[in-house]
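Sequence in, structure out.
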Amino acid sequence: MQQDFTLGIEEEYLLVDRDSLELAEAPEAMMTACQSDFEGQVSPEFLQCQIEVGTRVHPNVASAREDLKRLRACVSKHASEYNLSPIAVSCHPFANWRDQHHTSKERYDALQADLGGVARRMLICGMHVHVGIEDKSLRADLMPQLSYFLPHMLALSTSSPFWNGEDTRLASYRLTVFDNLPRTGLPPTFSSWAEYERTAGALIELGVIEDTTKIWWDLRPSHRFPTLETRIMDVSPRLEDTLALAALNQAILRMLCRFKARNLRWRNYDRFLIAENRWRAQRYGVAEGLIDFGDRSIKSMALLLDELTGLLIEDAEALGTIAEITRLRRIAETGTSATRQRRVHAEAQARGEDPGRAVVRHLIEEFHADL
C-alpha cells in the first residue's frame, strides 16, 4: 500500500471572559503572541471571538497529539493573560450572534459582503481532519465511499445542543447554521477527478467563486494540500476525543484503500439515504443510532462501532491507533459533549444556579483536562 495517510487537524475555538463567561474578542496582542509562538499555525477566524489552530503534517496520531496539545496550551496561556479562556465547542450555550463582530480582514470582509445576513449567524466552530492522499484520481474515487461514514463522525463529535440560551433539542445545532451557506452539505459523487475539476471550474470561470476554498462540503479535496478534508464534525472539548475522531478518519481511508488493492470497494449509497443518517446524527448524536442500509435496520452507535472496529482493526494496528479507535466505543456508550452539556445544565438548574454559565465553566475544564 503506497499511501502514507499523513494527518493534519484544524480546530476552531471560542474565547470567553473568565469572570462573566460571555464571549470576548481576541486582543490583537494576544493573537500576535500566539502567532509568534506557532508561526503559520494560529490565525483569526471569521468572528473576533474566534481563533483557529492547525497542526503541521504528521505521520501518525501520536505525533499530531503533541502538536495539538502544544497549540491548545499556547492559546490558553496567552488568553489567560487577558483574563480569557478558550473553549472548544461548536456553539456557545447562551451568547447572541447579533452581538458579535466579524474580523476586519479582506477575506472576511468579502465573505460578509457575499453572504449577506447569512454570514452574521456564523457563531459556530468546527474541526477539520486532513488525510494525505497523493493521487488525485484516488481522491475522487474515495470521496463517495468515505461519505457513507460522515454521519458516524458527526454523531460521535456533537457538541452544540444550545443556541441563544435555548436547548435546540438537536445534538449539533452548528450544522443547522452552517447549512444556510451555499455549497455545503454532502459532496456530490464524481466519476473522476476530471469531472470534479470541470464542475468546480464552471463556477470559477463564471467568477461565482475565486477558487475551491469557497466550496464548503462536509468532505472535499483540499485546495491547498494533497488531502481529503473532512469538515462535518463539531469541535470536541476534550483533546483525546478530537484525536480519536482523527484516527477514525485516517483508519477508514486506509481500509478503503486496502479494499481497492483487492479490487473491492464500499458500496456507493444514494445521497438521499446518507442525508437521512446525517440528520439522525445532527438531531440525536449517538442516542438513537443510525440506519444500516446493508441490512435495512436501525442500529445503536455502540453496535455500529463494534462492527466498524472489526473492519478497521488491521488498519488501526498498522497506524498505531487501537487506543483511539477503542475510545470511540466509550463515546457511543456514554454520550458526547452534547450529552454532558445537557447534564451539567440540568444539574445547575436544579441547584438554582445559572445553567448556561455552569456549562461554560464545564467546557473550560474539559478544554484543559488533557493539557
